[in-house]
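Our consortium's second objective concerns turning raw sequence data into structural hypotheses that experimental partners can test. To show how far this objective has progressed, the report includes one record in full. It was chosen at random from the queue rather than selected for favorable results. The single chain below, 125 residues long, was entered without modification.
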Amino acid sequence: MLFLTAELRALLGTPISDERAELAHELAEDAILGEVGARIAIPPQHGIKTVALSIAARILTNPQGLRSEQAGGMLQSYADSQTGVILSDDERRRLRRAVGRASGAGMLDIAPTEHRISTYPWWQA
């Protein structure tokens, strides 16, 4: 479990049903697992709960993904450009950092440790 229902209710400041909270948790968890796979520990690494709660709050606050709505003379604009279950670039970076995944090609090493070939400069050979 990435976060508790009570934490989501406290963040939103509004009452929500257990069913809606559970669905928001499942959707947030699915988005996170889709990004970093099964690398999440129990308890989750630092930073994962923040992203999960942000996603769940977006799902419950603006489930239709509206940017603005108008009723009569009242216009409501949503400040958050992210809506629904879409992960922002910052959230992706935070998740990858939390599970220890490097974000640059310079950190990539696909050779197994036991088969790595050591190379030496010609003057050390």
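The partners drew two points from this record. Residues 17 and 73 are 31 Å apart (CA to CA). The radius of gyration is 21 Å. Both points have been shared with the crystallography group to help prioritize constructs.
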